[in-house]
Specification:
434 residues, alpha/beta, ABC transporter transmembrane region fold, Rossmann fold, 2 domains, 6-stranded mixed sheet, 4-stranded antiparallel sheet, 15 helices, 13% strand, ATP hydrolysis activity, AAA+_ATPase
Length: 434
Amino acid sequence: MGLSVIISFIYGWEMTLLILSIAPVLALTGMIETTAMTGFAKKDKQELKHAGKIATEAVENIRTIVSLTREKAFEQAYEETLQIQHRNTLKKAQIFGICYAFSHALVYFAYAVGFRFGGYLIQAGRVTPEGMFVIFTAIAYGAMAIGETLVLAPEYSRAKFGAAHLFALLEKKATIDSYSQEGKKPDICEGNIEFREVSFFYPCRQDVLILCDLSLSIEKGKIVAFVGSSGCGKSTSIQLLQRFYDPVKGQVLFDGVDVKELNVQWLRSQIATVSQEPILFNCSIADNIAYGDNSRVVPLEEIKEVAKVANIHSFIEGLPEKYNTQVGLKGTLLSGGQKQRLAIARALLRKPKILLLDEATSALDNESEKVVQYALNNARKGRTCLVIAHRLSTIQNADLIVVLHNGKIKEKGTHQELLRNRDMYFKLVNAQSV
C-alpha cells in the first residue's frame, strides 16, 4: 500500500489525496463481505461436524442401535442437523446478497466520486488520463485488499498459534525412539525378567503413583500371573517391559540387561502380546497371521503350523476359501474365540521368548474360553509367560501368582499357597466362586 501511495503522488497529488480520503470506505466494503462469509463458514463447519459425528456413531454402533430399535431416532437427529445447516445456507444467501449489494454500492459511489473529480483534473490539465487510472487502481484496490486482510487478522493470529504448537509437537523428540538403531542386540535371548525397585507414574498423572518399589524376578520358561483390582498396576508392568514407558525409578531387566540399553525394535521382537480385544485387519486369514513377523515373507506352511498350535487350523480348513478367507473390518466375520485364536497364531509366528497375555479370555463365553485356553496352554510351552487375568480359574496352574494392591506386591505364591494364606487372593477366589 505504501508503494502504491508513492507512485500515485508521482502521477498526481490532488487525485491521490481524494482517493486516500475515500480509501476507508473501500476498505470497509472488503471487511463487510469477508466478515459475512467467515461467520457463516464457521457455523456451517460446526453443523456439518456435528452431523458427521452422528453418522459415525450410528455406523460404528449399528448393531446396538438396531437391537434398541433406535434407527429412526438417529435418522431424525441426522436430518435435523442437516436442516439447521440448510437454513443457515438460505440465511447466508440473503445476508450475503444484502452485504454484496451494500458494499458494491459503496464501491461504485467511490468510483463515481473519483472519476468525476478525475475528469475535472483532466480538463484542467493537472493529470493525464493514464495517470488518473493508475492512481485510482493502485489505491482503490489496495484499500479493498487491506480491508479484507484486516478481517482475517484474528484468524491469522489463531492459525499462527496453532501452527507454532503443531511444529513444536513435530520437532519434539520421543523419549523412547522406536526407530532408533542404537542399543544392544544380544545373540542369545533366554527370557529372564526382573523388576528391580520399579516405581512409575504416567506423565499426565504425576500425582498418582501406579507402581511403588516393585521388585520381582521371573525365571525363563515360567508362567507368572498378575492379579488384583483395576488400576493396581498389572497392565503397566507389562508396558514397562515392552518399553512403551520408562520407570521413573528402578530398573526393568531382560536377561540381566536394563531394557534401556537394548535396541527397542529388537526387544519388542522378542515379545508377543495377546490382548483382551484382538485387532484383526481387513484382509485374509493368512495375511493376518503373517503380520506377526514383518521381517520376512512367511511361507503358508509355517502359517499353518502356528495355526495348529493355536487350535484354529481345523476351523480354517473347513472354510470354502481356507486361509484366503477375508475376516472383514476388525474381524467382524469371525466370533470372539476365533479372533482370539488367530491373534495367538499371529503372536506365535515370531517365535517370541516372552508371551504376554492381557486378559486374553475375559471377554469370551465359557465354551469359547475352554477352546482358547487350550490354545494358550500350547502357546505357553517353552516360553516365559506373563498373564494378566480377572478370571482366576485360568491361572491356577501358574508357577507364580503375584497379587498387586496399590502398586505394591501384596502377596505372591502358587495357587494353593495363596489359598492357605487366606489373605487377599483367597478373598478374590471366594468372590468369584459365589
